[in-house]
């Protein structure tokens, strides 16, 4: 056990615990706040593995932008203080979610264990320069296609928000 | 053991700077605004020009009762003020005052600063929601909307400085700086100044806290020391943003005198930007919410993108 092992275990445990709280809490906004804890400690995991750029971008994008957007959407629609039961899912759905989650975890775990077993692997390749070389070298096409996909999503969102859909009278809420 | 002592000394220095600089900015703001608006303000405390007024304010804040509203989400309400303060303390640690004069030299310190700054403003959101007050909730929503729109130009111009220097570390950027940057990166610096003022929710971008219509927005329900922590976080934010701009655009410790006096140049440059941010508050009236979004999306983002293009062309041409 090195210091890195200990730190990684701590960050991972916090991340998993906060994620469980995020999906199980009865307080709607608390669930978004637990998501912050979970995502931040996940970036701690990246940091321990030496990928400081990935860790910081994780903080910048997920905590600084996406959770802010989630909180904004919650405040704009409904953000009750205290326990709320109106957004609870049915028991069947919960059981199904549990099964799917457990199956995914089992699949990932079995793949990782069968691939690496108990071998010791040196982790190197998280550095910013190497990451940039990989991203804009061998992975440049997937990267560009992804950005095109995001652009299409952006234009589509704008179209949905700005263009009137259906007859004009309906869009204004005035019956003809 | 030697490393440990060094870490302790550096941390203590950062903490000392964090406790002194925001208060200096606060006192400067009182005096500068007083003079610009042709009024005296408090002149009695401490004798000379009322220099001890800030201490008196601090004592007053500490004596006030700490009230948590009945309808509030109590735990979140109590945690919220701490987030902003801690975030800016961690941000101040990576700002270089000289080639070896910094709290910590992180390889990606620019990204670190932006990421941590984003977390600090989450405290305002939490405060706005957890107060159980409609004004606070409105303030929280406006904060979130403002944050999402002004974060983008801020990150884009920071990326422009990073591309120009070929480094993500503030120390590396300051080393790569040369006087041409004053013209080359000028649009970026202006965008940074405006976006940073908006990010700190300072007037004219103070729609979220607008005291005359939202009664301080997210901070309506806060009293005593917790309210003082929010004020302190705002001043700490001014310090961090001013010194960041000084490090990015004015080359941090670069100056005519010998290198050992670099920290003095950094203090002067950062102080000038802090003064400008205070000046902006006196000079412009508050922007309406839709005007505020318009400035971000139709003004700052296109200029920031243009700056990125100019920087990229410059880097490619000069690296031949």
TrEMBL record, chain A:
UniProt keyword Kinase, yes or no: no
One Gene Ontology MF term: quinone binding
Membrane topology: Multi-pass membrane protein
Main location: membrane
GO cellular component, one term: plasma membrane
EC number, UniProt record: 7.1.1.-
Record field: transmembrane: 6-25, 32-49, 55-74, 95-116, 136-161
Reactions listed under catalytic activity: a quinone + NADH + 5 H(+)(in) = a quinol + NAD(+) + 4 H(+)(out)
Alphabetical list of Pfam families matching this protein: Oxidored_q3 (PF00499)
Subcellular location: Cell membrane
Source species, domain of life: Bacteria
Keywords: Cell membrane, Membrane, NAD, Quinone, Transmembrane, Transmembrane helix
Metal-binding is among the record's keywords: no
Similarity comment: family membership: Belongs to the complex I subunit 6 family.
Function: NDH-1 shuttles electrons from NADH, via FMN and iron-sulfur (Fe-S) centers, to quinones in the respiratory chain. Couples the redox reaction to proton translocation (for every two electrons transferred, four hydrogen ions are translocated across the cytoplasmic membrane), and thus conserves the redox energy in a proton gradient.
Protein name: NADH-quinone oxidoreductase subunit J
Organism: Flexivirga caeni
